[in-house]
Every structure is written in C-alpha cells, then in structure tokens.
Amino acid sequence: MTVTAPAGFDAAGIAAGIKRSGAMDLAVIVNRGPSNAAAAVFTSNRAKANPILWSEQVAADGRVAAIVLNSGGANCFTGPEGFQVTHRTAEAAAGALGVAASDVLVCSTGLIGEQLDGEVVEEGVLSAVNRLSADGGGDAARAIMTTDTRPKTVVVERDRWRIGGMAKGAGMLAPGLATMLVVLTTDAHVASDVLDEALRAATRITFDRLDSDGCMSTNDQVTLMASGASGVAPAPADFAAAVTEACASLAVQLQEDAEGASHDIAIEVRGAVTEDDAVEVGRSVARNNLFKAAIFGNDPNWGRVLAAIGTTNAPFDPYLVDVSMNGVRVCHAGRPDAPREQVDLTPRATHVLIELHAGDASATILTNDLTHDYVHENSAYAS
Amino acid sequence: MTVTAPAGFDAAGIAAGIKRSGAMDLAVIVNRGPSNAAAAVFTSNRAKANPILWSEQVAADGRVAAIVLNSGGANCFTGPEGFQVTHRTAEAAAGALGVAASDVLVCSTGLIGEQLDGEVVEEGVLSAVNRLSADGGGDAARAIMTTDTRPKTVVVERDRWRIGGMAKGAGMLAPGLATMLVVLTTDAHVASDVLDEALRAATRITFDRLDSDGCMSTNDQVTLMASGASGVAPAPADFAAAVTEACASLAVQLQEDAEGASHDIAIEVRGAVTEDDAVEVGRSVARNNLFKAAIFGNDPNWGRVLAAIGTTNAPFDPYLVDVSMNGVRVCHAGRPDAPREQVDLTPRATHVLIELHAGDASATILTNDLTHDYVHENSAYAS
C-alpha cells in the first residue's frame, strides 16, 4: 500500500507513453485531508531541474494538495519550454482535482537534456487522476522506477496513525540534501513546521549518508505530506522518530538496489572529534574508486582506506587509526594487524569500521562497490 | 637516455627480488655534480608513506646527491620497521657512493601495508650502484614501473643544456601536489631556490591537473636535480619553461597509460572568474563516475557534465553554460543544442569544452574514462 497506507491518501500509477518501452511512467498522489500540511527537501545541486525550480516555490508555504511524478525524462536543462511542461503538469492535475496549481508538486526523473512531450504528460495526468484509489500506492511506486529493479516502499505503524513511503533511485545516488525521489505520507495530524523539522532531521542521518556513487542528482526531492485523517496528533519527538525509521528503511532499500552493485557497504567511523568529521572521513572512503573496486574483488585492501581518509581535513593522526573489515582488524595504529586472508568479503553486506581515536563522535555512510555492471549500465544509459 | 640525457648523471635499474615476478624493481640515480642542487614536491595526502617522511627531510636543504626508487612495495603504513627499511636504503646507497645519507632521497611504489624486506633492498642498492652508468636511464625508467605498460621518459633540448626525465604511474592518479614518482635531471647550472620555483610552477599546471581516477597517492614525489655539468646557467624563465615542457610531456604519457582507460579526456574550462574556479569545475567533471562511464560508452551525455559542475562553489549560472564535445556544441545556455548523434566519441583523444560565461580565466584538466578494465585491474591488484 505504501503511500496509501495512511488514511486520507489516494494514488495511481500508469503508463502514459513517456517511456518508449511502454512501462509505467507517471504517478499521482493526492492528499484528501482534512489537513494539507507538507514539507519537502530538495537537491543542493545548483544545476536544478525544472520540477525542482517549480516545487521549491510550491512547498514554501507548507501546504501541498497533490504530487505528480514522472519517470522517462528528468526535464532538466530543457530551457523555458521544459519549465512550461512542468507548469502545465501542475495545472492539469490542479484542474482535474479542483485544487490550486500552486499546491501541486512535480517530480521528474530520467535523462537530463531531453524535452518531455507536454501533451503526453498532460493526458497522462488526466488519465491517472481518473484512476486514483486508496490502494493505488503500489502502482505509484512502480511508475517512478528508472533503472530500479524493484519498487521501494515502507509502512511504519504507530498507535492509530501510520507513515507510508515510496522511493526511487539507483544511480546518481549521493546527497544534495535528498538523493532521490521520495514521497512520505502520514495520517497523523502534524503542522507543517513540525513536518519540516522531522523531515530535515531524518534526511540528515539517512538519505544524506547514502552515497552510492558520489554523483549528486539534479532532480532529488523528498516530500512528506500529512492528511490528519487519523485525528491523532502524536508528540513531535515520536513523530520524528517514526519519520526517521521510514527514511532509514527506504535508504537501505535504495542502497540494496544500486546500479550494478555486488556489495552493500556500511562505513562506520568512530572516534572522530565531531559528527561532521566522521561523515567527511566516511564519505572520502565511499567515494574512492580504488577502495570500491577492491571490495568488488573481495580484496580487503585497507591501504586504500587510509589513502582515502588521508585526503580529508578531519583532525586525527593517520598513524593511530585502526581499520576492521567484517569484524577482522586488519590495521592497528597505522600498521598491518590480522592477515588479510582472515577477512571474508564474499557476503553482499560489508562492514568497514574505522577507529580514528581522536574523539567521541561517530557516523555511518552507506555505499556500494564499483563493479563491471555499474560501468556497463552507466555507459549505455542513454541508448 | 631519459634521466641520464643531461651530463653529470649516472643511473641503473635492476631486478633486486622485491617483486615476486622477478621483474626489474629498483633504480638508483646519482648526480655526479659539480652541483648537487635539487628541489622536490611531495603528496599532500596526510597519510604519507615512510619514504615521503624521509625524503621531505632530505630535500629540505635543497641538496640531493642520489635517489633510490623501488617498485614492488609502497612501504606505507608499515610502522617503525618500515621507516627503518627506508633509512637503511639511504644508508646503503650513501655508503656505496661516498655521500651523506641525508643527501639520498628514497621513493617507493606498490601495495600499501606490506613490509619491504630490508636485506633484499640493501643488496639491491649495492648491486645497482655497481652498475651505474651514463646510459642507465632507460633501465631506471623500467625498474619503477608497477601496472604501467611502458616506461615514460622525456628529454628537452636547449642550447648546450638539457632536461631529462622519467615517470611512473597508472593508478591512484590524482594530485596531492605531485601525483606519481617523477625524477627530472638537468645539466644546467641552477640554484636550488630557482629549481624549486620552476618545479612548483610546472607541477601546478601539469601533474596537478592530471586527475585520472580521483585517488590521491600516499607516495607521490617529483624530484628535480641539477648537476651544473653543462656549465650553462640559463635565465630562470627559460629554465622554468623547459621544466614545464618536460612535466607536460610526462603528464600526458601518464594519462595515456592510465589503468584500463580507453579515452584520454581533456576537460577545458573557459570563462571562469578565476583559474582556481576553472580547476574546481574541471575536476568535478573528471571525478564524476557517471560522466566517465558515459565516455567509455561513447555517449555524449552532457547532462552529466552539468550535474557535476552544479556541485561546485565556482561562481557561474548553470543556465548560461555551453558544453561542446569533440567540437560539437551539444548544450547552449543550459539547453540542448546540436543533436548528440553528431558527436563522434570513438577516438581515444576526447575534448570536452565547458564555457561558463562568467569571466576570463581558464584551465584544462586531464582525465580518463571509467572502464571495465579499470574495475578489473583494481579489483585484483593485491592478488
């Protein structure tokens, strides 16, 4: 049920004809209320797609009635015509739903630099609105897939209220603020400023710490909409915890479906002076192609970990650092420790622990390995 | 003749038994004078190998009598024992050559985190010193190869003086200051402060702008030694130009032999506000795996160029940017321009031109594509 698990939301996912393959490519999600409170976070990439430019304006007042999402084209760097298509998308949904266009978010994903056909999108929106239903969440989650091999969905249950969610993303997975298209819904009664605070707190330690391939998208958007239909107003801290739980689940699902990956790597950094330092150190490893290729080859090449973290500005002494891989400490105080033959890197789930011995802060970055399949999928994406 | 092309230098390259394969793995280069002036630049990675820790001290006084280089082991993160091996290497060369150990540089390259056998290295040094000759430069260039498929050498001829050089490097090619092991020699009579200035000016616009895989080495070192044997003291500007010419040639040779690469990509950024901005923009593209994989697939995916440069802090408007690939302008003012089918990316030499329209500064970054062979070579390096 995903985004339609909470009361007050209808959704649909259809094949509008945007994708040449004929696969599903357009989703609409509507908040039937009684509340229309919402919050959203957007990519921090300065190269922003047209739907981001539009949606930033729509979300600014903390009120969203509906969201239209399309796969099959990013509508990014498509000029004023491209912006017109985004605007027309919102107008079409607004007209059919009887809401204001300024309350309709638009999200797009696919190839950058190609025009979407405004007429095809508009007809798709009308068709999707006609099929809206309280169990359309599954179709919506499938309609936003690009190179994803499966839909990503989540439901978090609480006492008389719920959070539902869906996500897409398999490449260009690195944080701007968000790192993909995500829609979260809840039937809790929550004001938009509380939604905003909960969403930013959650994305900061979930999607923002997923760095599959170091490439920041132009189209990322995470939206949280509250219908209030349950009549329950949870305590802000409880609500924030539930949002974080939903985001963490979706982040792991995105990692597990990353393009071509054969390992899901959790890089845990401990003993940093600050949490930001821990994130910087973890990210330097997550973005090191030599490390990522070594993990693909089941090679516990800890030297590449140290070479990567040595490029950061985080305060620590490289010659005090310990590195463990899947529970085996292969480097102690900057020297070889257990023989690398003891490390088993054949499981898909991989844990790298880096102990900096500089402070008490920690953070975990999620990434993937660099594989033949990643290169293959991304060398042929446009064709 | 490479480093032995200038008068006053002897060199040797031998198989000392460090590499299990029995290939050549140790080189010695001696400056016979009359001058021993020298300058060196080192990796800015904080994770520094033992030979870097040693050589930074040796080079500090602008005087170098000899340099010992080994492949087959980086001697990095090998603890105090590893530093002892570096020290012993310098002592062995100093004793055999009748110079001070504090005038002997040491360079190492290979796997991080494995001990070098001090006895094997010492015997190798003595054996190499016995074979020093004025035409040993070719052997020296071969002895420092790791995954390099061919030696990289250069000779720059001027009126009665020369610069000779050799380089190794095929992976972990991204600038700290230098990005690889490079030795340059000259028989010009040049004081060490002039050498230093010329070397830093040259590396800044050559090796520092080669960014093959974004991975900064722990062992990079570029050394320039002057024997003064020609008796000619060129004007500093003429000398600096010749050093830059030699470094530029070696940088291109390194790019052309980068691990697994199928394209040599020059990313030219024009219209930046400052040269540093141009470098930041070019580097963001050079380090974008999606862009690099697209070039491997002969796909002129300019959207990935814009997505990459949007992550920088350089001042420009993404919606004013033009992008050309191999002479075809595929993006104009942030919109699609010539059809991507017009771009021929089949040649190995690839030119990407990014016009920011923000100022008058420019810079070119050299990089490579991301290929199956890169992943393969680097997933199996340790085995």
Task: Explain the overall architecture.
Chains A, B: Heterotetramer of two alpha and two beta chains. The structure is a homodimer of 383-residue chains. The first copy, chain A, is of the alpha+beta class. Chain A folds into 2 domains: 255 residues, L-amino peptidase D-ALA esterase/amidase, CATH 3.60.70.12; 116 residues, Ubiquitin-like (UB roll) (Roll). In chain A, strand 11 and strand 12 form a beta hairpin. Chain A is globular. The interface between A and B is large, with 64 and 64 residues.
Query: What number of structural domains do the residues of chain A give?
Result: 2
> What integer value in Å does the Rg of chain A equal?
21 Å
Strand line-up of the largest beta sheet of chain A: 13-12-11-14-10-15
Which sequence of SSEs, written as H and E, runs from N to C of chain A? Answer: EEEHEHEHHEEEHEHEHHHEEEEEH
The averaged pLDDT of chain A comes out at 91
Characterize the overall form of chain A: globular
Label this structure with key terms.
homodimer, 383 residues, alpha+beta, Ubiquitin-like (UB roll), six-stranded mixed β-sheet, five-stranded mixed β-sheet, 31% helix, 23% strand, globular, EC 2.3.1.1 (chains A, B)
Short description:
Chains A, B: Substrate binds at residues 146, 168, 179, 259, 378, 383. Chain A has 383 residues and is of the alpha+beta class.
Topology:
The structure is a homodimer of 383-residue chains.
Chain A: E1 9-14, E2 26-31, E3 37-42, H1 50-59, E4 66-70, H2 79-97, E5 104-108, H3 118-130, H4 137-143, E6 152-158, E7 161-168, E8 181-186, H5 192-205, E9 221-226, H6 236-256, E10 264-272, H7 275-286, H8 289-296, H9 302-309, E11 322-325, E12 328-332, E13 335-336, E14 349-355, E15 361-368, H10 372-379
Helix pairs in contact in A: 1-2, 2-3, 5-6, 7-9
